[in-house]
Amino acid sequence: MSSSYGGTTAFDRLRSRFDGQPHACDSCGFVDDDAVWRAATSGATVEYRRECPSCGTEHVRRYQL
Known about the structure:
By secondary structure, the chain is an alpha+beta fold. It has a single domain, classed as Single Sheet (N-terminal domain of TfIIb). Helices cover 14% and strands 34% of the residues. The protein has one helix at residues 10-18, and strands at residues 23-24, 31-32, 38-41, 45-51, 58-64. It has a three-stranded antiparallel β-sheet with strand order 3-4-5, covered by helices on one side. The chain has a two-stranded antiparallel ribbon with strand order 1-2. β3 and β4 (45-51) form a beta hairpin.
């Protein structure tokens, strides 16, 4: 069963809140209107990562489980 935020798992639903939302790079100020985040988990944490298409800076959002 999927929710209104998309996806069938909690990880997918959280990532769908990030994907497609405008994101301003902290390093260069570039605003990416279609930011896409990659998710990975170690079991204790979940990390969502994306790279700025302008300067290549990697942005990370980390959540403890």
